[in-house]
Amino acid sequence: MSSQSTKEHKEGTLKVYSFYLVTISSSRFSEFGAVSSPEEANDGSGKLMQELVTSSGHKVTKYELVPDDPSLIKGSIHRALESDADVVITSGGTGLASKDVTIESVAPLFDKDIPGFGELFRFKSIEQIGSSVILSRAAAGLLKGKVIFCVPGSPNAVELALKDIILPETGHLVKHARQ
Ligand SMILES: Nc1ncnc2c1ncn2[C@@H]1O[C@H](COP(=O)(O)OP(=O)(O)OP(=O)(O)O)[C@@H](O)[C@H]1O
Ligand SMILES: Nc1nc2c(c(=O)[nH]1)N[C@H]1C(S)=C(S)[C@@H](COP(=O)(O)O)O[C@H]1N2
């Protein structure tokens, strides 16, 4: 747990939020199928999302692995909407290859777009990958009172997105999503 969240826990001011985590990876899905934990699918990014969420004092409602298939991705988002999760994070399939359909599948569902997430994520990613940041269409939005983030599949991208943006802003965003 970070020192900030440890302090908040001690003071009783940290709210615990629930996260629904979805890894979108055709290669892992074709090798391992619909597993229920990242460990079962050699899913380093899924495992990292899980660790970062729980070490911040929050909980994981559910983890899913789906392939780059629009109807399966939307199915996952619909299940997340029916769950008690406050926040949904998808990882993978945000790129520009024809198989990358996460943004096409999820962003049109948003009630409200959060453009600042993608802008800040790409700005911060310049330090990691330079001008290749243009390859990621990372996005976020509000949908039916939940906050949804779509981040790239690489573990470096997941770490940056969760540690630097998503986890520090969760309380603030969830509050607005519910209003
Ligand atoms: N879930 C993941 N866990 C660990 N590394 C990942 C994961 N997804 C992607 N990566 C890594 O991020 C980089 C970019 O991945 P890419 O967008 O090509 O996804 P991919 O793993 O090929 O996805 P797919 O399984 O859909 O083909 C690669 O180095 C890949 O190994
Ligand atoms: N911060 C950060 N952003 C990143 C990356 C990364 O390693 N770190 N990988 C890039 C790469 S290689 C690709 S192809 C795109 C899209 O990745 P995805 O298709 O796995 O979502 O995200 C990009 N954004």
TrEMBL record:
This is Molybdopterin adenylyltransferase. Its EC number is 2.7.7.75. It is an enzyme of class 2 (transferase). SUPFAM superfamilies: Molybdenum cofactor biosynthesis proteins (SSF53218). GO terms for biological process: Mo-molybdopterin cofactor biosynthetic process. Coiled coil: none annotated. Pfam families: MoCF_biosynth. PANTHER family: MOLYBDENUM COFACTOR BIOSYNTHESIS PROTEIN B. Residues 20-173 form the MoaB/Mog domain. It comes from Methanolobus tindarius DSM 2278. NCBIfam families: molyb_syn. Keywords: Nucleotidyltransferase, Transferase. GO terms for cellular component: cytosol. InterPro entries: MoaB, MoaB/Mog-like_dom_sf, MoaB/Mog_dom. It comes from the Archaea. One of its GO terms (molecular function) is molybdopterin adenylyltransferase activity.
